[in-house]
Amino acid sequence: MKTTLTRSLLILTLAASMAGCAGMSQKQKNAAVGAAIGGVAGSVLTNGGTLGTVGGAAIGGAIGHGVK
């Protein structure tokens, strides 16, 4: 149940963030995509663990922001 809820919230967050990307700079878009990918990866690697999901999103967002 926890894994399903985490994934559902992650998908909802991804959809909402992509809808609001029209006025974003390229760095902001890269950070959003990186956070989404990192969150999914963190969730998968920790079997839906909250800390893994949030940590993956934070790391992915930081990496995405740094990409040119």
UniProtKB/TrEMBL annotation:
Domain Glycine zipper 2TM span(s) in chain numbering: 31-67
Signal peptide: 1-22
Keywords, ordered alphabetically: Signal
Protein name: Glycine zipper 2TM domain-containing protein
Annotated GO CC locations: outer membrane
Transmembrane segments: none
